[in-house]
Amino acid sequence: MKSAILPQFDRNNGWLEILPPLAPANVARGNLKADVAIIGAGFTGLAAARRLADLWPDKRIILLEADRVGNTSAGRSSGFAIDQAHNIRAKNFADSLEAEHNQITLNRAGQSYLRDIVQERKIDCDWDESGKVHAAATQMGAQKLHAYAKHMDLLKLPYSWLNSKEMKTLTGSSFYQLGLHTPGTIVMQPAKLVLGLAASLPKNVTLYEQSAVQSINFNSPHEMELAEAHITTQKIVLANNGFAGQFGFYQNNLIPLITWGSLTRPVNQEEQEMLGGTETWNIIPADPFGTSARRISGNRILIRNIYSYSSKLNAKESDRLWAKARHEKSLRNRFPKLKDLTFDYTWGGPLSLSKNGEPVFGDLAPNVYGAFCLNGVGIARGTSLGKLLAEHMAGKMSPLLDIINGAGRPNKLPPRPFLDWGVKLNFANRRRTAGLEL
Length: 438
What we know:
Elements: H1 14-17, E1 30-39, H2 43-55, E2 61-64, E3 80-81, H3 97-121, E4 132-136, H4 139-155, E5 160-163, H5 164-171, E6 178-182, E7 186-187, H6 190-199, E8 205-208, E9 213-217, E10 222-226, E11 229-238, E12 255-264, H7 269-275, E13 281-285, E14 292-296, E15 300-309, H8 317-334, E16 343-353, E17 360-365, E18 368-372, H9 380-393, H10 399-406, H11 418-434
Parallel strand pairs: 1-2, 1-11, 2-8, 4-13, 11-18
Antiparallel strand pairs: 3-7, 4-6, 5-6, 9-10, 10-11, 12-15, 12-16, 13-14, 14-15, 17-18
Helix pairs in contact: 2-9, 3-9
């Protein structure tokens, strides 16, 4: 099975670019053998590799990344490891209490696994367990927050309200009229986190970067062709999200999207005094198609909004420039005093959704396994599913595995071009109805 599309990432990712330069990549070369080869070194692949190494300490595990760790989807997110959040496909958030409790349980398991690694390995990634604030700028947004609070009540989850004055004290902006704080979310610098996870992998895991898999012969053993390497492996794990469809699995079930973020230059001293607010804060929009915003250490502001459909899986420069213009408008709406504040970086990150909101997990073919299609919840859920997939492969059962094994799988999508038209029209309408929340 030959991959028609290989992952491509530019160097506009602000999370990575503000860090010191990376050491040269360890590129896969020559004839290599492994017991397990994992494709994709994001949160899912990193968790699977780590857990498999613990369970199978005598097996050789190869972890393959098409680009550089920290520059792919995991390092391009907004840095929210959520326990419970909006579903961008659903009108009502908690239609099924049991299903929602199961999702929270999986997410918290991922958070806990990450927390243990960060603490044990002393990973410096601006780890912050202060939670997130769902914020509304309009009456429509406020109504959505009150509906969200009712769902929180049904789930017996804690939250607290922030009025407009308290939102200004937090952010320095008069833009937000109402906020709802939920304490269960963890935020971090995502590129620093994945780099730290990769640097602390067990010794029987070898990470190869800039090593995209071009084709796979699914046989016994499996054979993988790369630009400079040939890999023979007994087992394969697909943890490469939407790109997994390129190898023939769930190809007609995944909706490929790009999400966009921008990071400002550092806010200078005069601007800080003008702005006020706290040193850091983390905003999620009341409307799922609104704007996430963060003030991070180093006095930069992150703006994240816009979903763009990408049938080719990779981000386009024209879409990046379009998203940047949208981000500039969102920044000015929230911080009109900072009229000279500009973006240093604007980047896109690919993800995949399913129509019914279900992930891919488990056996795909003999000795081929997968965990992908995370529906925009990659940090916590991806970590959880990666760890659970390793345990599934090793025959280690648990209540968490029962949850994910009992869940649905992505259903079939309409054929193209009807899918393309439908998604683009839906997104345009959702952006329009989000209004000022965007």
